[in-house]
Amino acid sequence: MPAQRRRSTLDPKDERASKKAALAVPEKNDGNSDAVQNTTSTTRNKKHNIDIHELYKICVLDDDKSRRLWNIQKWEEQGAIEEIVWPFLKHNLDSKEYFHACYLMVLFVSHHFVEGAFAEGSSFFDGTHINMNEDDNVAAINKILTTLLYKTEQTDFDLQTRIVHFLDVALCRSGNREDPLLKGILSHVSGINLWHWMPDRLRELELKKSAGLRRKFASSTRDKMWIVTNVKMMLDLLEGNTEFGALVKFKADETMEAPKSDSVPAEVWLFLHRSLELMIDLLSLASTRFFLVIYLDSIGFSVRCRLAVGNEYAIPDNLRLVQFLLTKINSLLVFPIQDANHKSLSKIDMLSMHHSRATTLQKMAYRHYPEDLQQVIYAGVGLLCGQSSTNIPYLERSFVGFSDTNLTHLLYRMRLIPDTDETHSRKYMIQVLSYYLAITPYPTDQLKLYPLYPTEEVLWDLSVIPSSNSQLRPTQVLALPKLSAQYLSFQDYLLRNFELVRLESAYDIRSDLVDAIKRVRPVLRQSSLEDDETITLKTEFNGWSRMAMELAEPLRIIEVRPPKLGETTSAQVTAEFTVDLEKCGAGIRKEWEEVGEFDNLFLVSLDASQMSGAPAPLLKDYHLKHGAHKMWDTDNKERRVPDEEDGTFPQRFGVMVVRGCMVMQVRNEHGTILSEPGLPIPDRQKGSTKKIFRVAMDTAQYSSDSKLGGASELYKRFNLVIRRQGRENNFKSILETIRGLTEGAGSIERVLPKWLQSVLLGTADPKSASYESDTMKTYALHTVGVNKPTDYLDFGDTFLDETHLRNSFDGNDVILDGNKLTGDSTSKEKKTRSNLKIRFSQGSGNDSEKHVVEAVSLPFPKGVAGNPIRFTPSQVEAVKSGLSPGLTLVVGPPGTGKTDVAVQIIASLYHSYPTQRTVIITHSNAALNDIFTKVMARGDIDERYLVRLGAGERDLETDSTHDFTKIGRVAYSIQRRGDLLEQVQCLSESLGISGKTQRGADGSSSYSCETADYFRKLYIERNKSKFESETKMADLSLDDDVVSESFPFLKYFKIDHVTLKEAREHFDTIDNIFFELAEYRPFELLRSQRQRADYLINKQARVVAMTCTHAAFARSNLIRLGFEIRQYRSSDESVSRRSRLKRLCMLGDHNQLPPVVKNASFSKYSNLDQSMFARLIHLGVPYIQLDKQGRARPEIKDLYGWRYKNLGNLSHVVNSKEFLRANPGFLHNFQIINVPDFEGKGESTPSPYYYQNLGEAEYVVALFQFMVLIGYPPDKISILTTYNGQRGLITDIISQRCGPGTPLAGVRPKAISTVDQYQGQQNDFILLSLVRTKTVGHLRDVRRLVVAVSRARLGLYVFCRQEVFGRCHELKNTMHQFENKPNKLNLILGETYPSERKSNNKIENKESVFKVEDVSVLGTLVHNMQEDLMVQGN
């Protein structure tokens, strides 16, 4: 196929129309878009009938940019990729319109990515919609790639940019290694074929290293490689070898003569950015980097780029971004990893490798140029192998007088250049030698040098902390790392996470600082008139902020400790500053007095003399500058960029310096320490308003400031201190945790066992960590503390009865106590409940595919409620996997009992391995408290073994006498110890060993844990032995034999008659007293509360619960204590000292929303919202899906059930009265209500990105009022929306409609919330407002849709513009079900709550059905009902 013309030269009149391709939505989605008929057939949907030619015309050739962008958005939302373009590409391989279809493919994919619509199982690249492995699909993929990569015009930078972006998106989004699209792309960007394009001599050097590589290369051919062309284009642009390249080079080198063109087109810059982004992503994958790294080194890519753009960062944004990206590429090219076997290199390995290179240079110099290069020959390796900033000047000095010809031959002999052509400049050859020798900073050393607190340079650098709203910069590549499915090593993984968390937290900090600085309103005023009549100006503050205080005295550096051995930064930098709270009100003063140890503060230097006084840039100018991808309705208005997004804010408000610090101590002006809990304050000092804060400065930042000169003077200029909310101020602990995982006792390689490490990195077989894999079976055979494959698993009280056991393993042979369970009428089932141990084995003979389930019953403990849940087979499988060693992933759709499964695993592990520890970690306090409460409610885990860490413990509802914090558990243990010692005292008195006179003055026991143990040995054990002897001599061995005469503790138990069985039970009771006392003995030896708490958490606790945030706070202390994790339940990383981890059980739902990332750029571009749980599933790690839901009506479940495999219903949601009854007053149990423009307006944005819809808000509130008026309890109704602006609007309207003086005064729904914030909660009835009327917005993320429609149990009523959401391809499976019902609200008048009407009953009185035409009609109805209510009240 000949190369196509550039887009600008295409004439739609000359284009020949292809055969029609219709957007035909099937009636039922079978998960395969290829079910759509051949596109050459007659269309089935005339409304969407369009051919490729017309689609290309309106989306590519239309001269009206606004209309063209609107068409792209419209057709992409409607699924043009899956329904029009892909079928055409698949069935019309020889069509003349094929290039147009390929162009549309990359165009729509680019827009799809910008919109952030990718979600697991919902995009073109995950294979859900299209079976890529089919032969005709593979052929289409190859044709598409060939057309795009080799048959398009290379000078069409706009098209080439889209192609590069298409490749990058496909590369990053496809997690299946066998995906033909991914394999096809890799064949053009990496692989052994790439080496055909290397210099022969350098290639031969690589082939000598491996005979296998030589054979593989011999079988390959010199085919076209797109990556070779792409790299050449980038180098031509950077080195100035093209028209635009000369201008790019001019931008980088201001000494050059300016070229004719005065500007580089935006598409040229974007092509460079996208190409470098793709290069970074290729080098970040272990599967693609090996051949690519060697090829790039062979052509000197890194050196040539460094010479082209320089080392100093440029001011122009576009060139600065190129430099950032090239720096990242350079660090990846020299990353410490052996690409051949993916083995991570240690710091010693890296040093040894570079020292051997220096030795090679010295030997070569000694052999060929002994007289000319003596300085090189006898140089220390530290000089030759220093970083490029130091070794380049040394090399330049060392080679002074050494001719260019000799230098060329030296590098040729060292295989650093391909030939002896003397066209290489001397500068280039020195750079090549430096690149070969220089040791780059090791990743762990880089982390140490990163300051933990952001500075003013980082905070307002929009190239590293982009705007929060991705629609501001959709076409721009960001200088941010990406979280991907695979990582090169744990160093790579931690580095990326550290940088992203650091920058994302800096964005939140920037918003808080901007808010406080704006409120204090700095001004410049005359301070005094000196003797020489000079005027002194001073910065003062005209306003106030509760989060900021002016410094009463300048900050002073108190102590700078020297660096520790082997480190370069100071060990600690301590400073002090003073604030005066005299002018503060009581509330603000109290807040500042609560600032204490370990809180983070920010010190700011404001200079009003440096304030520019300029306003923020206009929003439309900002959009224009950053290349917005679509028109904004706000662009025509005089709106300005929000201050928190404005990079010029420091100049506008005189922000000179920002530094962070951590509070070490707070004292008053009298020297009394205020930050020490429990320390009394003298009455005369309680009125003191001055607070002196002793703080620890960031040592890395202080060292950097000192190198620039005058850190102490710089810090004296601080005149404002700003605090943040505690919940948002945990970033430092998280960063310290990531840094602590890099090395030392808490390093991640010591924390995680070998069987888990490669799976988490994404480089191993994803099934290798499953309990059924050969790897884990071998691990179990050689590891203490786990079940062997042939051992029994202790399921405890998982099963309620024999029927439950049999049904849980349906299709397998189930044997209980040697008897096969058949389930027929002749078998008799035990009436008493038992605990069970189960062993699984493979069947034999004809039943080899079956498992044999051998169960052994054990006595059920007395006084224990036990498990009340009749677990489904999938839940039982999850419990089985959780009890086994290895990695367990459990996917729990809404309402399927994730919490109950987690609780059962925890309880079973506790009873199976009572000496091992289980750690429960969740993202939220609510989820953690839910699990912890259910664990307590079981009653079979002694509460002395339960600990709940973190502030969320105060929300626990418990009957315990003490809370479950460390201090509360210590207090409980001390009280329990006293109670048990009282029992020992009574026991002693009953035996006549001691009397009441020996008690303490307050009547307390005279025993301690130590003396109680002596008492046990001397008297209890002796009496027990005597009892056993007497009963044996009397030949008393039956349980019913009376042993009253021999039993020594009749008086203690206050009984006169006892049998042998009862006597042994009493002995067990006494033994348990002394066993429990032995655990409390350390509390007598440890006197301080902190020592006791540390002992409890490290030695006594068996079930420890905390949130992810608290885990980061507590990690360093846990490492110090030697806290060892045995089992672990979480969706985050482990926090242990050594690799004792035996089981990792992760429960979640990747089809629901991940934790919120406030800055959308970090989530959409860098995938910061990617959870480990979702990533492991994306990699193909086996998981167990819970397949029965018990929350919602079956018809409501169907709205989101299509996202899960075979999601069914529990019997009670099908048969119980609650779910069979209809919703009173409603004709339908769920419905979409179409809301047209209200008062001529749909969606609106009172401020940028603050979406509201007045019509929907009024409609929702009116329906809420109607429901309350007919009897619905308000707490059974929740109102949800997808935007914060709408939530605020609904809250305001309800405050008016249900405010004082109204019939519904004080009535409020249970919640008015956003969908994101309501995740994890539920209610009987949900009123949902989707707000948008022009585009779908962020509901295109199917995960948000799943959360939105799965919160309701009995009724869901959605208010939206149906035509907008109904045409969205990602939402069609849900919206299609709504289409079966009318889009106008149907009410049944005269019906009240509750109602006995069944859902499937026909309405006999048709007149009672009332169709609500619009919100005004419903408003009138509600108004009349309220008037009737008031009349009745009167």
Structure description:
It contains 55 helices and 35 strands. It is α/β, with parallel strands linked by helices. Strand 16 and strand 17 form a beta hairpin. Helix 4 packs across helix 6, helix 24 runs antiparallel to helix 30 (731-740) and helix 36 packs across helix 37 (925-938). The termini are far apart.
Helix content: 40-55%
Q: Report the end-to-end length measured between terminal Cα atoms.
A: 86 Å
Strand neighbour order, sheet with most strands: 20-21-19-22-23-18-24
Beta content: 5-15%
Biased composition (Polar residues): 32-42
Keywords: Hydrolase
Domain RNA helicase aquarius beta-barrel: 538-724
Region (Disordered): 1-42
Keywords for this structure?
43% helix; seven-stranded parallel β-sheet; globular; 8 domains; alpha/beta; 55 helices; helicase activity; disordered N terminus; 1434 residues; Aquarius_b-barrel
